[in-house]
Design goal:
Layout (H helix, E strand, L loop, with lengths): L14 H20 L8 H20 L5 H23 L10 H23 L6 H38 L4 H6 L2 H20 L2 H36 L2 H5 L4 H20 L10 H32 L3 H27 L4 H23 L5 H14 L10 H6 L2 H14 L2 H12 L3 H20 L1 E2 L8 H9 L8 E8 L2 E7 L9 E9 L16 E2 L7 E5 L3 E5 L2 E7 L1
Parallel strand pairs: 1-2
Antiparallel strand pairs: 2-3, 3-4, 4-5, 6-7, 7-8
Helix pairs in contact: 1-2, 1-7, 2-3, 3-4, 4-5, 4-13, 5-7, 5-8, 8-10, 8-11, 10-11, 10-12, 11-12, 12-13, 14-16, 16-17, 17-18, 18-19
Length: about 575
């Protein structure tokens, strides 16, 4: 008796072994392309690894003996597209990594495209009967999750066997499991074999799929009640709590919208004959379809507030797109309820099919290097800086250098070359940085150095404090606000910084400390701090000098300060 659910898909007894071998080879190729002694992988190799992974997974998911060349072309095409997107994304950031938003958008597009293609393959034409499309989408998710679980169990079993043989002195398997190339081969073999095995027994998968949908259906009333109560409470509680929340209001609302769509689909299933019959579940699905639009609108309001306050960034542009998709699904839900009333699921199913096709196309379009979200974001952020809405020291120079791609770095170069004097050093510092966390430190040091220059007293005639000297003083916190400080030239690129730890004008005077900065040494050389040894008046008017001693000695208003030094 055939174990295939659909008589149209022919049995393929060798499929598990073919898929296991194919995935094992792909695992080895993926390892060879990503393996590196220093941890760095070129953009070309990352793109190659992406092609291997996406093409293999796409083929595993979509192939059947029926029209198998179509599946081969589908896998090859998507592998090339996402490899190109990844290669382009790697040039977008400073680290040369492919993991940018366009890359994830392309991955989302192929996930949506897989069940659409499977339906076209089965139909042999551009037709999308909802029952078949919905079944493919759920089956792909269930089989993928089960295959990942099987892969994990395989590794546990392999380590158990390796441990047993190691007890009797045979450590071959243990040593192999410590090699990454073997792990990738084993992972590919287990995942591909499990995927092929489950595809050949999709009657069992259908049962598991129905079980998952039943579980999700049971959760539908819980989420529906919570979301309805949440929305009805807003007129009484207001929205301020959403905006003040420590988590992203827009992200949380979008996640709630996605959960509502998922659970509503679990209830309505593939068609009227398959949907749940329990009235509580049906009303819950209707409520879930109805709340998606107000949740999406609230997410849009939250996103709008952030954009108005902080300007555009690539993440916020993608967030706005996600809000648009959620609003489209919400409108489809309201339209379906208006058309079908309690039988809202009948018009909702074809609407969701059309939305899936549209979302797949939009995700692919946005993944391609056509629209530059970095350029849009750079213009937005610089407009806020130029208008004075954000102070230079609070401006996100790191985002310009690391998050906005070539357009952001080009704008930084323009500022470093021809921008206002106060901005040039911060822009140049951001361009030179190799790690984003160092930019904020350098920006803070530049700002603090400017502040130090305004309040420090130069006690040596002819001494001019360079930006590097001011940065060193600021970095060492030798002249903090509300502290009297002065600087003397010690010769040989050395500066003596003198500071009082009391506010100026204190009737009993301030305790004076001093520290030597050697500009000829690296910035991380420790600064010597002699112990305080004198109490003086106002340091801004005191006579400060260095006199000969057994070494040399600091004097403030004729009083020695600290120990003699060379």
């Amino acid at each position: 008796m055939s174990e295939r659910l659909d008589a149209q898909t022919q049995e393929w007894p060798l499929r598990p072994w073919i898929m296991a071998a194919l995935a094992a080879i792909a695992g080895l190729l993926f390892h060879l392309l990503t393996d590196s002694d220093d941890g760095s992988v070129s953009a070309a190799r990352q793109a190659g690894a992406t092609f291997v992974a996406i093409a293999t997974l796409s083929f595993l998911v979509t192939v059947e003996r029926l029209r198998w060349p179509w599946a081969f072309a589908f896998a090859l095409g998507w592998g090339l597209v996402i490899a190109f997107v990844g290669w382009f994304s790697a040039g977008y950031n400073r680290e040369g990594e492919i993991f940018e938003w366009p890359y994830f958008s392309a991955l989302f597009a192929v996930i949506v495209a897989a069940p659409l293609f499977q339906t076209i393959r089965d139909e042999g034409a551009w037709r999308f009967p909802y029952g078949r499309l919905h079944s493919h989408a759920w089956a792909d998710a269930v089989i993928g999750a089960a295959s990942l679980f099987f892969t994990g169990v395989t590794f546990l079993l392999a380590w158990l066997i390796a441990g047993l043989f190691d007890l009797i002195g045979i450590d071959l398997l243990k040593e192999l499991l410590r090699d990454e190339w073997f792990d990738w081969i084993l992972a590919g073999f287990a995942f591909g074999g499990a995927f092929g095995l489950l595809r050949e027994r999709d009657r069992l998968v259908a049962t598991l799929q129905r079980l998952v949908m039943v579980v999700f259906s049971v959760l539908a009333p819980v989420l529906a009640l919570a979301l309805v109560v949440f929305l009805l409470s807003i007129p009484f509680t207001g929205l301020q709590g959403l905006w003040d929340s420590w988590v992203s209001a827009a992200g949380l609302l979008l996640a709630a919208s996605a959960g509502a769509i998922l659970l509503a689909n679990a209830v309505i299933a593939d068609g009227r004959d398959e949907r749940a019959t329990n009235p509580v579940l049906l009303w819950s699905a209707l409520a879930l379809a109805a709340v998606v639009l107000p949740l999406a609108v609230l997410a849009g309001l939250a996103m709008g507030i952030r954009i108005n306050e902080y300007g555009w960034t690539p993440e916020r542009i993608w967030g706005a797109i996600a809000v648009g998709v959620a609003i489209a699904y919400g409108l489809a839900g309201w339209w379906s309820i208006w058309r079908g009333r309690r039988d809202f699921d009948d018009p909702l199913r074809p609407a969701q099919t059309n939305l899936a096709i549209a979302v797949c196309g939009v995700a692919l379009f946005l993944a391609l290097p056509i629209l530059d979200f970095g350029a849009i974001s750079a213009r937005s952020q610089l407009a806020r800086l130029e208008s004075g809405r954000v102070e230079p020291q609070k401006f996100d120079w790191a985002a310009m250098a690391f998050d906005f791609g070539p357009a952001g770095r080009k704008r930084l170069a323009d500022i470093a070359r021809t921008g206002p004097a106060g901005w040039r050093a911060m822009a140049a510092s951001a361009l030179k940085a190799t790690k984003r966390w160092t930019i904020s430190e350098r920006t803070r040091a530049v700002v603090e150095a400017d502040e130090v220059a305004k309040r420090i007293r130069v006690a040596s005639p002819g001494l001019r404090l360079t930006p590097e000297a001011l940065r060193r003083i600021a970095q060492r916190r030798l002249c903090p606000p509300n502290i009297e400080c002065a600087v003397l030239d010690m010769g040989r690129s050395r500066l003596l910084v003198v500071m009082s730890d009391e506010n100026p004008g204190d009737p009993i005077g301030g305790i004076v400390m001093s520290a030597v900065i050697d500009l000829s040494q690296p910035a991380d050389v420790e600064v010597a701090r002699p112990k305080p040894a004198a109490r003086v008046g106002d340091l801004s008017t005191a006579r400060i000098e260095v006199r000969p001693a057994p070494g040399r000695q600091l004097y403030v208003d004729g009083q020695p300060v600290g120990e003699p030094f060379e």
